[in-house]
Design brief:
The chain contains 3 helices and no strands. The model has no long low-confidence stretch (mean pLDDT 80). With 128 residues, it is mainly α. Helices cover 66% and strands 0% of the residues. The chain starts with a helix and ends in a 34-residue tail after the last helix. Among the domains are: 34 residues; 46 residues. The relative contact order is 0.05.
Amino acid sequence: MSKKQSQKKRSRQRFFKNAFKNWILWGSLSILLLFGAFGLFGKGGVVDLFRLQALHQSLQSEVNDLLDEHENLRAEVSRLQDSRYIQHLARDQMGLLGKDEFFIIIDDVNDDSTVLPNKKIPSQNLTN
């Protein structure tokens, strides 16, 4: 073999050796990049993790609010067992009167506004 042919052979071997190394390098980098992209943006990735953490925080806050509301409702149910509280609600919220109570309207004599004609106001009795 001549010196020129030997150099060509070595040059070709170096080229394929370098090409193979480059192919391995770029292939490995591509695979790592692909796995990194799936790790960041894929199902169960970092982005999904942050979204799920925010959702967890939101749901935990809602659970705490519902627990507070539940406790308030338990207290209201407990108060509704008392007849005095029921009478209080009937008077304040519904405008009902007890057995021995009267509804009196006092007209202000000094008031120059128009006086409405006397109307009978129906009363409902509360039972104990």
